[in-house]
Amino acid sequence: MENELKYETVKHAILNQIHTGELHTGDKLPNEEDYMKLFNVSGITIRKALTELANEGYIVRIKRKGSFVNNPKITENQSHLIALILSAEDYYDSSYMKIIKGAQRMAAEFNYSLIVEWSNENLAIEQASIQKMLDRNVDGFLIYPFDPIKSIDNFKLIEQRNIPYVLVDRYNLNRPCYFAGCNNHDGAVLATRELIRLKHTKIKFAGYHFFLNSEQERYDGYCSAMRHAGLPVNDDNLLTSINYDSLAESILRHDITALFCSNDKLAVKVMKQLHERGIRIPQDVSIMGFDDWDNSRDLPVALSTVKQVFEEIGINAANLLINAILGKIQGGNTKVLSGVSLVMRDSTSENPYS
């Protein structure tokens, strides 16, 4: 009975600090050792008090980081569930698995569970997935949309419920949002500068889904690096619909010596198509990708590319969402970009015609 009274004394003392405003949302609580000295009780007593406060939603306990005050306005109806809606073209793409892994890892640190819903490229299926998760009373959404412009009405379903959501990898440039992705612009600058360093001046940019802001940002980075090097940039530099016969002829005429593809998927397709037309890589043309797929190094000609860390993007997305759920950030217009790096392999070489 005495131990029960001790842990309740600790619990009510912390609750009083929260209710009176002495402790605010997001504040970190003192560590267990400090509370043991303050209340002259054992560590077991402190842990029991903190566990009950966490179970009742007043605080959030994060492994290796400590305990933090939760938002009292939202704790009553919290489900501690987060939905990840993936509108994906290829369910077997390892990059999606890495995003999921990162998001799950971060969610678990905040005692949240992640529910994954696949909706391919169909807006109606995406909408049904969102409604299904709304019916489960999830606390927030991570959304990897196929086309964030066309998905606006689906996003409005979430906004009407005043539930936070974070877009992953792609967003609508004209619509404020929480977003987690990679630094597309700077990654493209790195790639283009490397091709220029290899004495390539006739470099084209090949798009895959150019309606996406991620590809447009990569193209902007390519253009920036080209202009900085004093190289011309015009509409002919951008390839959005590739005629591979014409492309092969341009390469054989040395009108194109390097191709920067907006992602590895396109780069792999380009390499295959050119190989079938007798074009040698990198002897006739250098190829650069973006993403660093798991199999990029295992191709017949290993692909040079820009590496983005997909698991880190998942971690950033879940962290951003949970901070929005807890009321630590507001306004719906925060973007977190993960870093990128250059990975040079066999598909690029110095321009032999320079």
Features of the shown structure:
single chain, 354 residues, alpha/beta, Arc Repressor Mutant, subunit A, Rossmann fold, 3 domains, 6-stranded parallel beta sheet, 4-stranded parallel beta sheet, 11 helices, 41% helix
SS strand fraction: 15-25%
**What pattern of helices and strands is seen along the backbone?**
HHHEEEHEHEHEEHEHEHEHEEHEE
Q: Strand order of the main beta sheet, please? A: 4-3-5-6-7-13
For the record, the count of structural domains works out to 3
Per CATH, the class of the largest domain reads Alpha Beta
Principal-axes shape call: elongated
N-to-C CA distance: 86 Å
Mean pLDDT: 91
CATH homology-level superfamily of the largest domain:
Response regulator
Structural class: alpha/beta
Organism: Anaerocolumna chitinilytica
Keywords: DNA-binding, Transcription, Transcription regulation
Pfam families: GntR (PF00392), Peripla_BP_3 (PF13377)
Domain HTH gntR-type: 4-72
Describe this structure in words.
It comes from Anaerocolumna chitinilytica. This is DNA-binding transcriptional regulator CytR. Keywords: DNA-binding, Transcription, Transcription regulation. One of its GO terms (molecular function) is transcription cis-regulatory region binding. InterPro entries: LacI/GalR-like_sensor (IPR046335), Peripla_BP_I (IPR028082), Tscrpt_reg_HTH_GntR (IPR000524), WH-like_DNA-bd_sf (IPR036388), WH_DNA-bd_sf (IPR036390). This protein starts with a helix and ends in an 11-residue tail after the last strand. β3, α4 (94-109) and β4 (113-118) form a beta-alpha-beta unit. The protein has 11 helices and 14 strands. It has helices at residues 2-19, 32-39, 43-55, 94-109, 123-135, 152-160, 184-197, 213-228, 244-252, 264-276, 310-325, and strands at residues 59-62, 66-69, 81-86, 113-118, 140-144, 165-168, 178-182, 203-206, 238-239, 258-261, 286-288, 305-308, 335-338, 340-343. It folds into 3 domains: 2-69, Arc Repressor Mutant, subunit A; 81-181 and 310-338, Response regulator (Rossmann fold, 3-Layer(aba) Sandwich), CATH 3.40.50.2300; 184-308, Rossmann fold, CATH 3.40.50.2300. α4 (94-109) runs parallel beside α11 (310-325). Strands 4-3-5-6-7-13 form a 6-stranded parallel beta sheet, with helices on both faces. Strands 9-8-10-11 form a 4-stranded parallel beta sheet. Strands 1-2 form a two-stranded antiparallel sheet. The model has no long low-confidence stretch (mean pLDDT 91). Helix content is 41%, strand content 17%. The chain is elongated. It is of the alpha/beta class.
